[in-house]
Amino acid sequence: MIQLENVTTTFGAGEENFTAVNNVSLKIPAGSIHGIIGFSGAGKSTLLRNINLLQRPTAGHVFIGGVDLTELDEAALREQRRQIGMIFQHFNLLNNRTALQNVELNLKFAGVPKKDRRRRALEALDIVDLAEKAQSYPGQLSGGQKQRISIARALATEPKVLLCDEPTSAVDPRTTSSVLQYLVDINASLGITTVLVTHEMNVVKAIADTVSVMEDGSVVEEFALDALKTEAFVPGTSIGRYLVSDELKVARNNSSQAIRPAVFA
C-alpha cells in the first residue's frame, strides 16, 4: 500500500545543509498499522509528512496504492490526498469555526453531502468524548480538547490511509485508550492502513503490527511487534533494546489487559 524508495529530505544549503531524512526505503502493507519511533530529532515527523508530500522529499519516490505521488501534478496530488487522513500534533484547527465545523470541513472537501457531513462529524466527536463541545470554538477548548477535535476531524473522513503524528500526546490516559481502540477498530473493520509516529511506547505496542526505529534521519531497525513476545528476541539497536527493558517486559506480560500508556523518552 505504502512504499518509500530511497527517500531523502534535506533543508538549507551549503554549510547550513541539514538532512532530516536520509535515504529511507520502507514498505507498509495494506491494512496494517505501522509505528515509527525514535528520539526527538530522529526525523520521524518529516518522514511521515513525506508520505503525503506535505513535505516533498528532496530525492526518492513515494508510492501509495501503486501511484507515485512524487510524479503527480498539483491537481492529481490533491485528488490522491483525499484518500489520506492526517492527525497533526499541533491541532491545526480554524479558530473562527466551531468544533463541529472543523470536523465537517474535511468531509466537505471530500465531497460528502451536507446531511451526511453533520451525522459523521457528530459521530466522530462522540468517539473522542467531545459531542457536548460541538458548538464550542477552539479558543474555548483546552489543549487536550483541541487535539481530540483534530483526531475526530481526521477519522471522520474514513480514509484509506491514516497518518498520525503524535496523536495522543495532548490527551489524558483515558482518552488515549479510547482513541487507540477506535484506531484499532477502524483498521480491523475498514482495513485502513495506518502509520503512527509517537514517543509513547505502549501506544505502539498496543496497536502496531510492525515498527521502524529511526535515528539521525535513517531507519536503523525494523521488526514485527509479535517479536516482542519472544523471550529470545534481542533488537540490534540501543533504541530497539529499550523496547524489551525490564519495565516493558512487565507490560508485555500483561498485554491482554487494558492499554496503559508509558512515555518513551
TrEMBL record:
Signal found in the keyword field: no
Domain of life assignment: Bacteria
UniProt keyword Translocase present: yes
Keywords for this protein: Amino-acid transport, ATP-binding, Cell membrane, Membrane, Nucleotide-binding, Translocase, Transport
Alphabetized SMART domains for the sequence: AAA
One GO molecular-function entry: ATP binding
Residues in ABC transporter domain copies: 2-241
CDD domains membership: ABC_MetN_methionine_transporter
Family matches, as Pfam families: ABC_tran
PANTHER family assigned to the protein according to its UniProt record, in alphabetical order: AMINO ACID IMPORT ATP-BINDING PROTEIN, METHIONINE IMPORT ATP-BINDING PROTEIN METN
UniProt-recorded name of the protein: Methionine ABC transporter ATP-binding protein
Protein source organism: Glutamicibacter bergerei
